[in-house]
Design goal:
Blueprint: E1 2-9, H1 20-35, E2 43-47, H2 48-57, H3 62-80, E3 84-89, E4 98-99, E5 102-103, H4 117-135, E6 141-144, H5 153-161, E7 166-167, E8 175-177, E9 182-184, E10 194-196, E11 209-211, E12 216-219, H6 221-233, H7 251-259, E13 262-265, H8 276-285, E14 291-296, H9 303-316, E15 321-322, H10 325-328
Parallel strand pairs: 1-2, 1-14, 1-15, 2-3, 3-6, 6-7, 7-11
Antiparallel strand pairs: 4-5, 8-9, 10-11, 12-13
Helix pairs in contact: 1-3, 1-9, 2-3, 2-4, 4-5
Bound molecules: zinc ion.
Zinc ion binds at residues 8, 10, 47, 88, 90, 145.
Length: 333
Amino acid sequence: MNIYITLDYELFFAQHSGSVEKSIIEPTEKLLEAVEKTTTKLCFFVDAGYLVRLEKYKEQFPELQKDYKLITSQIKMLHDTGHDIQLHIHPHWEDTPYHDNRWHMDTSRYRIHKFSKEETEDIVAKYKKALTDIVGDTVFAYRAGGWCIQPFSHLKDALQKHNIWLDSTLYHDGYKDNSTHYLDFRNMPNKTEWKFSDDPLVEDENGFFTEVPISSTRVSPLFYIKYALVRKFDKIGHQIMGDGKGVGREGKDNREMLTKITPAVASIDGYRLSYLQRALDAYVKKSDNKHFVVMGHPKAATMYSLEKLREFVLDNHTKHNFTTYTKAFNASS
Ligand SMILES: [Zn+2]
């Protein structure tokens, strides 16, 4: 099995974005330390809108000049040491100004579908360029911010034009429909790789795009109850490293999770590592599964998750192939 450890490399999107040091740079260093014994390479989906905004404001604000230097040098170092740098888009950065020493996040246009098709094209072009300016022409994979990739017709031409041909956004049975998110992956193919052209949920052998979905499992309400308890009783072990605040879950989604068995992505965020091995074991049982894609966020790393990640990589690196999209899909350009 090819195993990909993928990270959405980003700040927080509520009123407290967190600092680049505590929410991105330092937890990324810790993640690298956790996997260094096995020389495992990670895949970073870089929130390029943040880079574009830093570029825009850095001449005006010396503190942003410093943030820009920190983040671009870490991205370059990651690329130079064999980790993947790929495209992640949170378009609400377009509406997010910086003043009074902080970012003023406006997530009313959280989904890229709130922008026109022309604006979307411009966003894909600018955001991809922000990455290629740092790492050269090596970016070909995409993950939609908040999994909001549908309807795909809105993005298709823009991604194709900029030669983004691999998507790693979908997860089995994913469904959300709330004030910020819309996604419905309930009818996706039961595979770990397929080609598509107009709709990532519909396989097309001759399609331009390749889907490599995020792996997932199902968790019972007990998981979320335990999660709340461990956080309450072991504050240090389960304290996230990031210093910002995320957009809270909506009541409706919370009720679902606490009353039903719900799909959950394979993840290295915090306590979610407690079900990662079980999720992998289930994928291994199905012989035509080729890829196991784990996601996570540097900002959500905890002492617990770093320790469990270290164990997960050590326990599995001789049995499986930890890899990156670049290595597995042999994309040298
Ligand atoms: Zn994200």
